[in-house]
């Protein structure tokens, strides 16, 4: 039995634990690994978000910058042509505003590591900030989130996407991720964020080599020791492609749906509160069955 929480997201709360919630992904980017920029057009992205709500999404996560392997992100010495704050705002704010206009009660999240984008997105109607850096890449993020009093997802990441290929392997990835999530959540609370506004995510695929993701899933229930609601994002990840390899070739992104559903079901059975997924309608069916059995 997974623990039940009241997740405070601004002026309202979401009950987590009685059933699994689905966070649908909307990438307003030209280079996402998962969809190749199919929703880069802002009007199309907004319509897609509305479709995901109809398909069963409880939360829509809007992102304007890809953090796929090899990407250079700002601020960093080698950021180069990383997406600027201005570019990111131009991508995500119109989508958030359009969805809120058409579905005022919808719950929107912004996928960003930039405090300025977080602030503008919350002003536009987002109630959750999903930071893949765990509030580490922008020194103002913790303070900003504490002031905004919105919900927040603290995800674990090792290094930056441009460094992932050179990171040394971990002998016990679960222990390391648990320890660092505890340290980062403690730092967030010390900066003024309330525990009831935080959800944590172990960050499947983010700075972990393919083989390191399997123990994260196998031992996922250990993350309940941190006493936070848990979000899982395994959708279409490369470790699923590796597990489904045929004749030495990893399964391509379009062929990872069934493996994704299996991994999401495992996570639910081990106590995940929220599943972040690209395939909302299929996941919604899996969630209904997994919730009956868990």
Explain the overall architecture.
- The protein is α/β, with parallel strands linked by helices.
- It has a single domain, classed as TIM Barrel.
- 37% of the residues lie in helices and 16% in strands.
- The protein contains nine helices and ten strands.
- It has helices spanning 42-55, 85-102, 115-124, 141-148, 173-190, 210-218, 238-243, 257-269, 280-293, and strands at residues 5-9, 12-16, 21-27, 59-63, 107-111, 128-131, 151-155, 198-201, 231-232, 274-277.
- Strands 8-7-6-5-4-3-10-9 form an eight-stranded parallel sheet. A two-stranded antiparallel sheet has the order 1-2.
- The N and C termini lie close together (7 Å).
The gross shape turns out to be: globular
CA gyration radius, whole angstroms: 17 Å
- Please state how the strands of the largest beta sheet are arranged side by side: 8-7-6-5-4-3-10-9
The run of helices and strands is: EEEHEHEHEHEHEHEHHEH
Total E-strand runs: 10
- Any idea what the CATH superfamily is called? Dihydropteroate synthase-like
**CATH topology title:** TIM Barrel
How many discrete domains? 1
Report low-confidence residues grouped into runs of 5 or more: none
Structure, briefly:
The chain is an alpha/beta fold.
Primary descriptors:
294 residues, globular, alpha/beta, 10 strands, 9 helices, 16% strand, 8-stranded parallel sheet, TIM Barrel
Q: Could you outline the blueprint of secondary structure elements for this entry?
A:
Layout: E1 5-9, E2 12-16, E3 21-27, H1 42-55, E4 59-63, H2 85-102, E5 107-111, H3 115-124, E6 128-131, H4 141-148, E7 151-155, H5 173-190, E8 198-201, H6 210-218, E9 231-232, H7 238-243, H8 257-269, E10 274-277, H9 280-293
Parallel strand pairs: 3-4, 3-10, 4-5, 5-6, 6-7, 7-8, 9-10
Antiparallel strand pairs: 1-2
Helix pairs in contact: 1-2, 2-3, 3-4, 8-9
């Amino acid at each position: 039995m997974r623990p039940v929480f009241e997740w405070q997201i601004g002026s309202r709360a979401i009950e987590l634990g009685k059933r699994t919630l689905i966070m649908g992904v909307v990438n307003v980017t030209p280079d996402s690994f998962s969809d190749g920029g199919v929703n880069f057009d802002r009007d199309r992205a907004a319509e897609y978000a509305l479709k995901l709500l109809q398909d069963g999404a409880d939360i829509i996560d809007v992102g304007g910058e890809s953090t796929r392997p090899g990407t250079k992100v700002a601020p960093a010495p080698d950021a180069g042509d990383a997406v600027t704050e201005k570019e990111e705002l131009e991508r995500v704010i119109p989508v958030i505003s359009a969805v809120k206009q058409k579905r005022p009660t919808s719950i929107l999240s912004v996928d960003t590591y930039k405090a300025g984008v977080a602030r503008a997105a919350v002003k536009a109607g987002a109630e959750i900030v999903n930071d893949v850096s765990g509030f580490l890449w922008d020194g103002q993020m913790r303070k900003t989130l504490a002031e905004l009093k919105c919900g927040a997802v603290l995800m674990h990441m090792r290094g930056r996407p441009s460094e992932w290929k050179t990171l040394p392997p971990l002998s016990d990835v679960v222990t390391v991720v648990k320890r660092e999530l505890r340290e980062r959540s403690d730092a967030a609370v010390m900066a003024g964020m309330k525990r009831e506004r935080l959800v944590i995510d172990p960050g499947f695929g983010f700075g972990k080599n393919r083989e390191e993701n399997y123990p994260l899933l196998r031992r996922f229930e250990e993350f309940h020791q941190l006493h936070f609601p848990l979000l899982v994002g395994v959708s279409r990840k490369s470790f699923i492609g590796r597990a489904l390899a045929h004749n030495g070739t990893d399964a391509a992104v379009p062929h990872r749906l069934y493996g994704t559903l299996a991994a999401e079901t495992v996570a639910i059975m081990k106590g995940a509160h929220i599943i972040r997924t690209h395939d909302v309608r299929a996941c919604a069916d899996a969630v209904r069955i997994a919730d009956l059995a868990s």
